[in-house]
Amino acid sequence: MTPVGNDLLAALASGVRTTAPTRADADTRATGGPGFAELLHAARSGGVSSGLAVEIEPALGLELNDEQRARLELAADRATSEGAERAVVVLDGKALVLDVQDRRVIDAKSLDELGAIPNVDAVIGASKPKETEARVGLAQLAMNAQASVTKALGIDRESA
């Protein structure tokens, strides 16, 4: 090894750990707050709000009240935490197509008129907890998503 290589290794040696950090180490750092794993779990379950607004494409003419906007914003946070780029948010009988990175609703359809929605990588229910239409809507969206994926992959559903 060259003298320069030896010097680099010696400089690195001071920062090398002999044991791997544990999950407990990560969760009990001096921050005094919850660990990363806890925050990620909370974000994925809709328990963390970024406080960032979601814009609605003006041409859609979609009007949402404050409570609906809050649920839409939480759904956008969940989509972000899952790494989605484009999501369908089921909200009070509507399917809202959300550009996750821009936090903008780019399309809205009634669940009654819903067809296949291409290029969607997440479906998130944002309806009130006791509404059954969210479950029905999610099931319909899942079937439509499957059809979109099989079409995109060129799979013939009849022969598959």
Shape: globular
Class by alpha and beta content: alpha/beta
> How many structural domains in the coordinates?
1
Characterize the biggest β-sheet: 5 strands, mixed
Number of helices: 5
- Low-pLDDT sequence parts: none
Q: For the largest beta sheet, what order do the strands appear in spatially?
A: 1-4-3-2-5
Distance between the termini: 58 Å
Q: Report the average pLDDT across residues.
A: 75
- Percentage of residues in helical conformation: 25-40%
* Residue fraction in strands: 15-25%
What is shown here, in short?
It is built from five helices and five strands. With 160 residues, the chain is an alpha/beta fold.
Sum up the structure in keywords:
five-stranded mixed beta sheet; 160 residues; single chain; 5 helices; 5 strands
Description:
The protein is 39% helix and 16% strand. It is built from five helices and five strands. The longest helix has 21 residues, at 133-153. The chain has one domain (42-153). It is globular, with a radius of gyration of 22 Å. The model has no long low-confidence stretch (mean pLDDT 75). It starts with a helix and ends in a 7-residue tail after the last helix. The protein is α/β, with parallel strands linked by helices and 160 residues long. Strand 2 and strand 3 form a beta hairpin. It has helices at residues 3-13, 23-27, 36-44, 66-81, 133-153; strands at 55-56, 86-91, 94-99, 104-110, 122-125. Strands 1-4-3-2-5 form a five-stranded mixed β-sheet, sandwiched between helices.
Secondary-structure topology with pairs:
Blueprint: H1 3-13, H2 23-27, H3 36-44, E1 55-56, H4 66-81, E2 86-91, E3 94-99, E4 104-110, E5 122-125, H5 133-153
Parallel strand pairs: 1-4, 2-5
Antiparallel strand pairs: 2-3, 3-4
